[in-house]
What does this fold into?
Amino acid sequence: MINDIFYMKKAIKLAKNGFFTTPPNPNVGCIIINQKKIIIGFGWHQKTGEHHAEIFALNMARNETNGSTMYVTLEPCSHYGLTPPCCKKIVKSGIKKVIIATLDPNPKVSGKGVEYLKNHGVVVKIGVLEKEAININIGFFKRMKTGIPWIQLKLGMSIDGRIALENGKSKWITCKKSREDVYNFRAQSQIILTSSKTILSDNPLFNVQHKNKNKKIKKPILVIIDNKNKIKPNHHSILKNKKKIWIIRLKKDEEKWPKHVKQIIFEKSKKKINIKKLLQYFGKKKINIVWIESGPRLAGYFLEKKLIDELILYTSPKILGQTAKPLFELKNPIKDVNKKQKLIFYSIKLISSDLKITLRKNKIL
It folds into this structure.
């Protein structure tokens, strides 16, 4: 078991290399060891449509795989998708044992890969570092099980819980290192969700980059909720933004928009965009992670409707006072301070002068 954990940790570390390029596919890592416990092949899934992690590892190991053991973070596929099934290649290679961290939540795969391997004489073990393997694919797992992506809400605040001065100015409450950390999160998401009010008041470009500037990343789609068609084609955030933009509206306008901008007309709920239907739409578009950056109104709505899976607070030691803008605007006042909490502390980390506090739902999936 100790050996299994050792090699699976290495496979999980490999899987993380795909964080910025694999969506909508999951991140998967694989290691093959021979009978002398020497690593003879390894790999990770790098991009949708390209080889899976198992194939990269098998190609590296070449003809040395007979009688070897494979460690893989997600159940190998047994069906034809964009690539051929990995299970057939594994059986053909002569691998005698496959250690799997977790089953694939995709109904096309779940359990079928394990069944195929067992039917062809391969010994299979499941559940080594399962929680860790699910966590690196939390958005994929949630989308497969619920049809809705993993929803992250980011807020930068002062130590007294304020996000901007009374006049709306907020640059910069948090430190440079915190902002760089946000760039990293944006790069891992497939959608950055905001409101027209945030666009109009802050002129954000939502920059995306990795700390290693040579790292290849997929640019997320910028999605703007614009109930009243306030955003225009000549707005700074539209003209200066190079990423794909979706503007979510109740009705189209007749403006001439740049090619990277798409108006999406959506079902309304009480004269507003139906947010739950919007999240389901994202799921159908194979979006695994939605990253929200907005003002207190939209943030408060997502919190009240219990739509947040992960809340990330960058807390500055600055004090802005009672006239500054609050963290959330809640439509319904809290009447019971002892009401059961829906979010729990997940991690606390010091980033330069700021404190990064991450909260998650008590029950994730």
